[in-house]
């Protein structure tokens, strides 16, 4: 039967929506509670919706009554402090799974390439239902930073680099695309990440905000690109050798991300 997927994401695996004026909204991410949770860099997360409505970040397939990344339970203490972020996550009307704000410390391009990963959003997702994708709403004004997307982790020939000013909005099939962020800054980056179920509601939301399957790449010098690629190859080989020595395979899917 297959999964229900958004045609808008078929070409590149992502769409960039119209930018919104984040400066009009309060900085609610400064008030909510964060927990230590590592994902592709030095990070913390502040969940707004989780499996059981608790302040934790585990995948929904952990613990009792395992399920896919859908039917998230909103956390009252967090929602009370972040009503605008909650409203924005709920606006598409699509089923919401995990919803949280990520805090990412500065990360250069080489680190970003090493941190590239695919998510495990659709574990236990029943066939014939909506494919889970993720929305990314950039909250801080990170003009020198960019989201990196690749179909192949180690192949730089097709690399999308998406700018991240305040109010940047994109939806990504993060189980298809390898992704991470280059965050060139001296301060942390904050971004709202929401798991949404694909279907007519999400399709309408993408159309409403003029989702584009291609945008111009952020320009990066060839020296930085080449050095980052070389460093990624070196670190991957080093990590593979470490796991091989222990008789294990390297884990690349960020099932909790």
From TrEMBL:
Q: What is this protein called?
A: Uncharacterized protein
């Amino acid at each position: 039967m297959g999964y229900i997927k958004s045609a808008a994401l078929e070409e590149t695996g992502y769409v960039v929506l119209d930018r919104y004026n984040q400066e009009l909204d309060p900085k609610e991410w400064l008030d909510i509670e964060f927990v230590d949770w590592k994902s592709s860099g030095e990070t913390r997360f502040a969940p707004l919706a989780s499996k059981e409505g608790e302040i934790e970040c585990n995948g929904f397939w952990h613990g009792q009554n395992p399920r896919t990344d859908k039917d998230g339970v909103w956390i009252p203490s967090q929602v009370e402090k972040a009503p605008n972020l909650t409203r924005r996550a709920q606006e598409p009307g699509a089923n919401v799974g995990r919803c949280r704000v990520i805090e990412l410390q500065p990360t250069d391009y080489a680190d970003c390439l090493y941190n590239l990963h695919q998510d495990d959003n659709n574990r236990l997702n029943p066939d014939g239902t909506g494919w889970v994708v993720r929305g990314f709403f950039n909250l801080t004004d990170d003009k020198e930073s960019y989201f990196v997307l690749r179909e192949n982790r180690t192949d730089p020939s097709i690399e999308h680099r998406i700018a991240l000013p305040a109010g940047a909005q994109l939806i990504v099939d993060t189980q298809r695309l390898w992704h991470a962020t280059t965050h060139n800054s001296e301060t942390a980056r904050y971004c709202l990440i929401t798991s949404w179920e694909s279907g007519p509601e999400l399709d309408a939301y993408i159309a409403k905000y003029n989702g584009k399957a291609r945008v111009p790449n952020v320009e990066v010098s060839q020296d930085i690109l080449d050095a980052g690629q070389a460093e990624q190859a070196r670190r991957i080989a080093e990590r593979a050798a470490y796991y091989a020595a222990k008789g294990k395979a390297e884990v690349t899917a960020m099932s909790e991300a």
